[in-house]
Amino acid sequence: MAHSGGSQTPPLTARAAGLVACPTCGRVHQAQTVHCLRCGQVLASRDGTSMQRVWAWLVAGFMAYIPANLYPMLETTTLGKTQSNTLLGGVIELVLHHSYGVAAIVFFASIVIPIGKFVAISYLALQVQRPDRNSVHLKHRMLEVVEFIGRWSMIDVFVVALLSSLVQLGSVVSVQPGIAAISFALSVVFTMLSAMSFDSRLIWDTDTKDSETA
Amino acid sequence: MDNALTPLNREVSPLSNHALADLVACPQCDTLHRLVLVAAGQKARCRRCHSVLMSPHASAMTKIVMLALTATVLMIAAITFPFLTLEARGLTQRNSVIDAILAFSSGLMLPLSLAIAGLIVVLPLMRLAAILYVLAPMAIGWAPAKGAMRAFRFAQVLKPWAMAEIFIVGVAVALVKVAGLAILTIGPAFWAFTALVLVTVLNDNFMCRLTIWRTLEARRPHL
Q: Using only C-alpha atoms, what is the Rg of chain A?
């Protein structure tokens, strides 16, 4: 992208201009406006409860992730023998069956993405309160990736749902969902809500402070 | 491309709410831009955080309405036709998407079953209905329907929760997991679901939120 100028004063934000912007439709209003004139959204220059909600959902998501790892996700009964698999156990079994590609997908969706989300959101939330030297573009990109990728953790929940509905062949083989399926689904939903509560404008605000003092 | 949105200087004189309609603030980073016409097929990005602010398409409203109708028909096919057929040791089982959803419908697992029904069928259908309600009258040149603003905001909120495409990947994983236990055949509903995902992606691609909001505002009947 060819920009007109090189490094200059940071661009003017709606708040710095004494205005308030609608995050839903982009409309700009006088600071005291309560409802967006275009789309009716309730306006706030910065979401004041954003950080509280981010932390609350994140902690809830983390608490739900613990039983999701400890309890069985799936119980397979083959000719009277019952075998239960945890989240990680399912991945290991796929590896033992030499389905490396699928094992990688499941491992990524149910282990890497959730843990990565906990780390990324806590880091972003902490640094909004105490900005570090990392580039704001990087942090914004992190938040975007977390928001985009978070939903994909649901894969394993859908797999459990499909298997337990498909594989019901009486005494030959049957599959039952375990309690971890619920905990894991809740964990994914809570962390999605956490990422959505994050007001990305707070990240950009740390940038303005930095360049004004520097 | 870039000159479509010119950044504002520091001195902004007090403007009335009416004059402010010509400005746009980036929803991601709050940076103000002065809005100029963006040609169809071009993208206007925020000059500070590079998020896409506008990406209008030629006759986007009609395309979106057509694609949303297609998606609705595909969704009905995906729900009602057989989805997967399973065979093991002489036993056969045929499943539709509804069966997959009802798998959890006993006792403790009921909430999970409702959640899955919501994520792969109910929320996508509600989102399609909201989009059609907002854009169908506009595509034929009428004023927006009553409550169109609320409906479009609702569609925007629903977007991350409609998980049909994730379900498709889940199906692929389930096929591999079952491969050792039984023989699986894919039914017509699976292809309907796959087509639905493609149509939804295409539809979201045509949807420029800012343009639609501005059109809604411009055509709103004055009280």
A: 23
Flag the least confident range among A21-25, A163-167, B148-152: A163-167
pLDDT digits 0-9 by tens, A163-201 = 887 777 666 777 888 889 889 999 999 999 999 999 888
Single residue among B54, B82, B97 that ends a domain in this structure: B54
Residue A177's φ and ψ, nearest 5 degrees, are: -75, 145
Determine which of B18, B173, B211, B216 to mutate to test the interface with A (most A C-beta atoms within 10 Å).
B173
Q: How confident is the model at residue A212 (pLDDT cuts 50, 70, 90)?
A: very low
Same domain, B104 and B130: yes
> Cβ contact (<8 Å) for B112 and A168?
no
* Per-residue pLDDT tens over the stretch B184-215: 788 888 899 889 989 998 988 888 888 888 88
Q: Choose from B177, B178, B184, B214 for mutation: most chain A CBs within 10 A.
A: B177
Quick one: B35 and B144 in the same domain?
no
Query: Class of the A49-213 domain?
Result: mainly alpha
The shortest C-alpha distance from A39 to chain B (Å) reads 6
Per-window interface: A 81-110 vs B, CB < 8 A: 90, 94, 97, 99, 102, 105-106
Domain boundary among B10, B31, B54: B54
Q: What is the pLDDT of residue A5?
A: 40
Same domain? B102 vs B195? yes
Residues B151 and B211 occupy one common structural domain: yes
Do residue A24 and residue B184 have CB atoms under 8 angstroms apart? Answer: no
Q: Return the domain boundaries, chain A.
A: 15-45, 49-213
Q: For residue B138, give how far its alpha carbon lies from the nearest alpha carbon of chain A (Å).
A: 16
Spatial separation of the C-alpha atoms in residues B121 and B128, rounded to whole Å = 11
The CA-based angle A202-A205-A209, given to 5 degrees, is 145
Q: Which domain holds residue B107?
A: 60-219
Per-residue confidence band for B222, with pLDDT thresholds at 50, 70 and 90: low
Split at pLDDT 50, 70, 90, the class of A213 is very low
Query: Which residue has better confidence, A81 or A65?
Result: A65
Pairing assessment for the beta strands A74-78 and A173-177 based on DSSP bridges: antiparallel
Minimal C-alpha gap between A121 and chain B (Å): 16
- Which residues of chain B are within 8 Å of residue A30 when distances are taken between CB atoms? 17, 20
| CB burial of residue A44 (10 Å; 0-12, 13-18, 19+) | middle
Number of domains in chain B: 2
Residues B186 and B165 in one domain: yes
Q: What is the distance between the alpha carbons of residues A20 and A34, in angstroms, rounded to a whole number?
A: 9
The verdict on ipTM greater than 0.85 is no
What's the CA dihedral at A51, A55, A56, A58 to 10 degrees? 140
- A177 at B interface, C-beta within 8 A: yes
